[in-house]
Amino acid sequence: MSSEKGSEQKKLMVSPAPHLHAKRSTRKIMFLVCLALLLPTTGGVYYFGIYTLFVVLVSVVTCVLTEFAAKMLRKREFVMDGSAVVTGMLLALVLPPRIPLWAVVIGAAFSIAIVKEAFGGLGYNIFNPALAGRAFLSVSFAGPMTNWIAPVSSPMGMDSVTTATPLSESFVNTGSTHELYLDLFLGDIGGCIGETSVLLILIGGIILLATGVIKWRIPGVFIGTVFLLTWLIPGEDPIFHILAGGLFLGAFFMATDYVTAPLTDRGQFIFAAGAGVLVVMIRLYGSMPEGVAYSILLMNAFTPLIDRYARPKPYGYAPPEKLEAKEEGNKDDKPKEERPEQKESKGEKTKGENLEQKESKGEKPRMRS
Amino acid sequence: MKKVFENLKNGLIKSNPVLVLALGLCPTLAVSTSIDNALGMTAAVLFVLISSNIVVSLIRNYTPNRVRIAVFIVIIATLVTIVDLTMQAFLPELSENLGIFIPLIVVNCIILGRAEAFASKNTPLNSTADALGMGMGFGIAIVIISFFRQVLGTGELSVFDREIFQAPGLTDNPMAIFILPMGAFLVIGVLLALLRYTGVIPNE
User: Does A305 touch chain B if contact means CB atoms closer than 8 Å?
Assistant: First the structure.
């Protein structure tokens, strides 16, 4: 048995360039994200009581169990890479603080079974599982999903007072604007479990930025677009708009998802700017008070298209028609150099391969009514 | 006679128009919100499919090849008009629920597809058997889908105003997503996956 294994390892490995090896494994990256997510989770427990801790735990456990069951059903090996834990935490953080636990179970199972595993598992899912799970829950259970409470007086208590979230129309600011900004920044205000405290999310985000897990481009452009647009639209308060709602959580932890965001720098710029425009559109002109989740999901759907459009040009590459024109004018022009495409090496190798596969396959057009 | 029976059986499971051929998905997804609608749609499709298959089969030797599609459409459109007006006269409520999807039967892939692929090449008896099988196959699929959508989306099952059961827990918090079009896609996707996984329908 061991000799067989040895000979298998000696086989010549053939893989397309670039031969870059990421230092970090998926597990390590997911561990770092989990660590960063613990901050907003702590904030949620502090502001909305110990019940929210159960929400997070139930969500994480359901996600991991569903992933295990799905892998068994698909007869694949179950790898504890931590992505299910991250999905579970993210899902819990974008749920209202007093969501019934059965709804958490349904949402978490949906996130993993339908949104992630049905599409092929980690690296193949089109939509961010946690956000799609949230969208599923908010369409299914409108009542429990809009039950917002004010921050509780003591974290151990179960009492709660219903309140309006800052973005809803019925929200009335009782204090001064500066007090409101401070409340929004610290998280002492109604909202989802993990989205209220901008400060804690920011610390978590900086940890991820510093360790290189995420880059500044997506969160920076996303938040910047929202700020710029609300600043340009008269009668809107840009600082309020970036602090309120789930913008920071979405920008740092959801939009930066390797699997569902574009690969190239230019693509990420388009992705984040598009999401920012959509957030402002939904908040100001849509029927819903908040639109971070839907805007990211919508841009997730555009990601393959963006990836195709924002593909980096190989060095020395000229489009065929330009090359022809050039050759006609100047015959001793240097021949076209070809270089392999540059790719981001952040562990999304599977995604890149997947994209290429899709392209090469070519779908058969079929008429249907 | 054996062949007639084969043709009848063919549409039920082996080449079920919705679950295997993936034809006629538009009406399947749109009207499967309740079992009432599903049954009404099945009745309409069955009538149009059987009649059109018989007529197309009867005139198959006189139809010039070049204009055959136009001929099929005229036949089907006539039959659909009959169904539409009859339904409006006697079942106004059902007609209102099904709405545009009754006139749209004219361009239903299953009916046009069977006319083109089967009835225009086979005897009236075989065509009738094929239409019956395909129509029932459509009915089976749409009723199964509407069963799940109605139970999950409203928490109760009632057929023609007669309540059959209430799902405990679901009645207080029905999962409204299953009444919406998204739910239709979810149900048919999961259903197809399950049927393929268990081997009820052939895996390609």
Answer: no
As for the ipTM of the complex, it is 0.80
Residue of B147, B123, B144, B118 lying closest to B10 (CA atoms):
B118
Of B109, B175, B197, the CB nearest to A369: B109
Q: Domain count of chain B? A: 1
> What is the spatial distance between Cα A138 and Cα A293, in angstroms, rounded to a whole number?
11
| Burial (Cβ within 10 Å: 0-12, 13-18, ≥19) of residue A211 | middle
The minimal CB distance from A140 to the residues B22, B24, B176 is found for: B176
Alpha-carbon gap, residue B85 to B89, rounded angstroms: 6
Domains of chain A: 26-309 (1.10.3430)
Residue among B108, B176, B180 minimizing CB distance to A369 = B108
**Peptide bond preceding A16 in cis form (omega within 30 of 0):** no
CA–CA dist B143, B139 (Å, integer): 6
- Min distance A99 CA to chain B CA atoms (Å): 13
Residue B88 pLDDT exceeds 50: yes
Tell the burial category of A14 from Cβ atoms under 10 Å away from its Cβ (0-12, 13-18, 19+): exposed
Contacts of A140 in chain B (CB under 8 A): 175-178
Give contacts of A106 with chain B, Cβ < 8 Å.
175
Q: Note the pLDDT tens digit of each residue in A235-245.
A: 888 888 888 88
Is the CB of A143 inside 8 Å of chain B's CB atoms? yes
* Contact assignment for A114 to B180 by CB distance below 8 Å: no
Q: Contact A143/B173, CB-based, under 8 Å?
A: yes
Whether B204 maps to a domain, the answer reads no
Residues B27 and B22: their CA atoms lie apart, in Å, by 12
Structural domain for B183, as ranges: 2-198
pTM, whole model, 2 decimals? 0.79
Partner B contacted by A146 (CB < 8 A): no
